[in-house]
Structures are given as structure tokens and as C-alpha cells.
Write a structure and sequence with these properties.
With about 240 residues, this protein is of the alpha/beta class. The chain has a single domain, classed as P-loop containing nucleotide triphosphate hydrolases (Rossmann fold, 3-Layer(aba) Sandwich). Helix content is about 30%, strand content about 25%. It has 6 helices and 11 strands. Strands 5-4-6-7-3-8-9-10-11 form a 9-stranded mixed β-sheet, with helices on both faces. Helix 3 links the parallel strand 4 and strand 5. Helix 2 packs across helix 3 and helix 4 runs parallel beside helix 5. The longest helix is centred in the middle third of the chain and has 18 residues. It is globular. The model has no long low-confidence stretch (mean pLDDT about 95).
């Protein structure tokens, strides 16, 4: 159970590996949240495209991996149109990125549906799983610790079975009521949710675009805010 520190520090243990350097750890979790209509789903999709193609993410190094997107918010035809518009900016190969748009009223805390997802993901061998978004695939009370723990346990099962990383899209509270002066504390729901992921990314408005605030517990340095804008169907730095 315990390791002798004087012995374990001499082992040839590789450093932490990343799909997005210092932001999305391999076999880790990223919580991406913002207020409604701030294009967080487009940021999640962009992240998936970057990883699946091995292209840089806003100029940051990525490691190529297979990606699966579980999208619950809009209809499949509408989502396919989003996928098509952004795809023109990437070189995507077959069998590297998949999507499923099962519609609302499919809950990852439902054992029958969860088992269907588990089987499908095992067949794909995806190493990054994007879930968009929590409120659309969760039937419980976001502020109830028992309910939110059931959801976390379901997502952890998907992560562990596939040796995968998770990007979970979520909503923030209204900043005028909650969160004080620190938007990183403004994720909607129980505090267990923000205590769980390895990285938290908040998307906030700026006068000429948006800003990403990022906290990563596994990175060995602070990550500076990244100013971005959505331009010609892709995210760019500004």
C-alpha cells in the first residue's frame, strides 16, 4: 500500500503526459464551464478536433488521440452542421473522431443507458471523451451531493474503463448573484463537482472576444489567461 519515498523517487516513472499540454492530462478530467450561449460547446468541439488531428490547440502542443463526443443539447442534424462548418479548418482522418447525439432524456446515471455507452466506447477505443453538457444528461439535483456523486462515479467509470480523459461541458451560475469576484468559483452545482476535475476552464466575455481562465492542479506552473475569439468557424488567440 505505502511506498518508501527514498526508493520510489529512484524509479524510472515517466512524467505526467498530456493531450493538451498542461491543460488536459492523459487519464484526467477537464471541466469547461461558462454562462449559456458563450460557445462553450464550440470550444469543446474545437478541442476534440485538435486532439483527433494532432493540431495545436490555440498554439499549445497536443498529443493525437481518438476522440468521442457525446452531445445531448441539440438535434443531430443541427450538430452535424456545426461539425461540418468547423471541419474545413482541420485535416481529419476516418476513425479518429466520432459523435453521438442521443437527444435529451438520456441520463448517464441510468444504469441501462450507461451500459450502452460503455459498450460503444469500448468498441471505439477512444482516449478522449467529451460530454456536452452535464445538465442535459443528468436527471438529479446538481446541488445535491449524493446525486452529483452518482454522476461523477458514472463518468469516472467511463474514464477508467477506457483509460481515457474526460472533457465535461457545464454551465456557470449568474455572476451577479454567486461566485464573488472569482469566476473560477462560479460553476453551477455542488462543490464536489469543482473539487473533482484536474483542470477547470472558465470562458468569460471580454470587450472584443472571450477569455479563458484555467487552473490545473497537475501543471507545474500557473497558466496565464488566454484571450480568444471565434473567427471563420474556429477559435484563435487574439
Amino acid at each position: 500500500m505505502f511506498n518508501d519515498v527514498t526508493e520510489i523517487i529512484t524509479r524510472n516513472i515517466p512524467p505526467q503526459q498530456w493531450y493538451i499540454q498542461d491543460i488536459l492530462p492523459q487519464q484526467g478530467t477537464l471541466l469547461l464551464f461558462a454562462e449559456p450561449k458563450k460557445m462553450k460547446s464550440f470550444m469543446a468541439q474545437y478541442s476534440g478536433y485538435c486532439i483527433a488531428s494532432g493540431q495545436p490547440w490555440l498554439g499549445i502542443v497536443t498529443t493525437q488521440a481518438k476522440v468521442a463526443i457525446l452531445q445531448y443539447e441539440i438535434s443531430e442534424p443541427a450538430y452535424v452542421d456545426r461539425l461540418r462548418q468547423m471541419a474545413g479548418r482541420f485535416t481529419l482522418q476516418p476513425n479518429t473522431i466520432w459523435e453521438d447525439s442521443p437527444g435529451r432524456r438520456k441520463y448517464l446515471t441510468d444504469p441501462e443507458y450507461l451500459n450502452q455507452v460503455r459498450a460503444a466506447l469500448r468498441a471505439l477505443e477512444a482516449k478522449v471523451i467529451i460530454i456536452d453538457c452535464l445538465s442535459a444528461c443528468f436527471a438529479g439535483d446538481e446541488n445535491n451531493s449524493v446525486d452529483i456523486e452518482r454522476f461523477i462515479n458514472a463518468v469516472e467509470l467511463l474514464k477508467e474503463e477506457n483509460g481515457a480523459s474526460i472533457i465535461l461541458v457545464h454551465h456557470s451560475r449568474k455572476p451577479s448573484i454567486f461566485g464573488g469576484n472569482d469566476p473560477m468559483n462560479n460553476s453551477r452545482g455542488h462543490s464536489k463537482l469543482t473539487g473533482w476535475p484536474d483542470t477547470i476552464m472558465y470562458m468569460g466575455d471580454q470587450p472584443v472576444g472571450q477569455q479563458l481562465l484555467i487552473k490545473s492542479r497537475l501543471a507545474n506552473h500557473d497558466i496565464q489567461p488566454i484571450n480568444v475569439r471565434f473567427e471563420q468557424n474556429v477559435w484563435v488567440r487574439r
